[in-house]
Design goal:
single chain, Rossmann fold, binds shikimate-3-phosphate, five-stranded parallel β-sheet, globular
Length: 176
């Protein structure tokens, strides 16, 4: 079974996902890291050249190449569910979980780490706030189609994992 964690940049998908996986002794993978390992260069470099279109192609491709024969939590990139038919793919091959945060929380978190995010690294703090509000509103159309929507400030990764593993239908439909 695969659990796909989705949500905006800076929502803590990797930390949260790693904790969920460790609770159950599952494997964890970060989609951006899989892309970087496959390509041998950073996401930032790929965005710079050949650019975002290429990044979205390989993102979709590498997502589909993740083996589905064992239990795994995958932290997706912020844009993963919003391109190609990645969201439909994830909803048909696993349990999608949206780690939800409001604009203020995302702004606070992203202000500290924007340097390594190609989409936002050159923005002022006002620009960043506008970008987050607009982009989050657009992307939530997709994020809200996740199987589970979780409050990112309140959710406990271990307890969430217990819920998914013990409550049908999450643990039935996608059982390998
Ligand atoms: C992106 C989010 C990033 C990374 C890329 C594009 C996005 O992942 O995939 O920079 O479109 O929101 P994180 O959400 O892990 O930062």
């Amino acid at each position: 079974m695969i659990i796909y964690l989705i949500g905006f940049m800076g929502s803590g998908k990797s930390t949260f996902g790693r904790r969920m996986a460790s609770r159950a002794g599952w494997e964890f993978a970060d989609l951006d890291s899989l892309i970087e390992n496959t390509e041998g260069r950073s996401v930032e470099d790929i965005f710079r050249d050949p650019g975002e279109d290429y990044f979205r192609e390989i993102e979709a491709d590498i997502l589909r190449r993740i083996p589905r024969d064992h239990n795994m939590v995958i932290a997706c990139g912020g844009g993963t569910p919003c391109f190609k038919d990645n969201l439909e793919y994830m909803n048909s091959t696993g349990v999608t979980v949206y780690l939800k945060h409001d604009v203020a929380t995302l702004l606070h978190r992203l202000s500290r780490v924007k340097k390594v995010r190609p989409l936002i690294k050159d923005m002022s703090s006002e620009g960043l706030e506008n970008y987050i509000s607009k982009k989050l509103a657009e992307r939530e159309v997709n994020y809200n189609k996740a199987r589970l929507i979780i409050d990112g400030l309140k959710a406990d990764p271990g307890k969430l994992m217990d819920v998914i593993l013990s409550h049908p239908p999450y643990n039935e439909e996608h059982q390998q």
